[in-house]
Amino acid sequence: MIDILKRRFGLLGRNISYSFSKGYFTEKFSDEIFKGNSYENFDISEINHFAGLLKNNPDLKGLNVTIPYKEQVIPYLDKLSKKAALIGAVNTIKFTKNGKLKGYNTDYYGFKKSLKPLLESHHKKALILGTGGASKGVAFALDELDIPYTFVSREAKENIIDYNLINATTFDNFQIIINCTPVGTSPNIEACPDLPYEFFTDKHIAYDLIYNPAETQFLKNAKERGAVIKNGLDMLILQAEKAWKIWNK
């Protein structure tokens, strides 16, 4: 059993009062086994405030990282795990015994483990909506699952298509649609990515990294056409537990 001294952890992000992580770890730490741990939100308006946060909180032992800092935080770290370096995004920071900051990515792990039970032989290719830090972890997981993917953004770039190009043929070719954008997050629950939802079928998976609301408009629209749907809650729980292991190893 891990000995629990008074240890502080937290979440780095912007506008994170809704935070899943704070609620999750606060509940976890209410258990007598974990007594002495605490978890708090570190809501900063710009990443350049991160250095001051570290200076003012020298006793921190670990941080989760969320939007919009999964990529921006990397220059402030001393080291990256091999997978975080390959992914190019960090959502977990470990404060090492010698005072160094090491970045990890547990998003890919949570996504991969939560998607895998849904996969069937006809799920061949994936569309990733969004190109931010979260999408990079998703792409890495798909690589490990040997599922080819294409990114979708509001502007077409090299290896990225825009939403205007998505049509019936796209849905024939891509059977897994993953929303990695914040569109549809509470309180803007009526919003959804700009897709021709009529082309979803029962051969499709619609996966939304959003967990609040539990069923986004994106998922509702896909479900109406028979698609298998999944929100991001299991992914979050899995990545949080992986972060906890990293902080304690």
From TrEMBL:
<comment type="pathway">
    <text>Metabolic intermediate biosynthesis; chorismate biosynthesis; chorismate from D-erythrose 4-phosphate and phosphoenolpyruvate: step 4/7.</text>
</comment>
<dbReference type="InterPro" id="IPR022893">
    <property type="entry name" value="Shikimate_DH_fam"/>
</dbReference>
<dbReference type="Pfam" id="PF08501">
    <property type="entry name" value="Shikimate_dh_N"/>
</dbReference>
<keyword id="KW-0057">Aromatic amino acid biosynthesis</keyword>
<keyword id="KW-0028">Amino-acid biosynthesis</keyword>
<dbReference type="InterPro" id="IPR036291">
    <property type="entry name" value="NAD(P)-bd_dom_sf"/>
</dbReference>
<dbReference type="InterPro" id="IPR046346">
    <property type="entry name" value="Aminoacid_DH-like_N_sf"/>
</dbReference>
<keyword id="KW-0560">Oxidoreductase</keyword>
<protein>
    <submittedName>
        <fullName>Shikimate 5-dehydrogenase</fullName>
    </submittedName>
</protein>
<dbReference type="InterPro" id="IPR013708">
    <property type="entry name" value="Shikimate_DH-bd_N"/>
</dbReference>
<feature type="domain" description="Shikimate dehydrogenase substrate binding N-terminal">
    <location>
        <begin position="11"/>
        <end position="93"/>
    </location>
</feature>
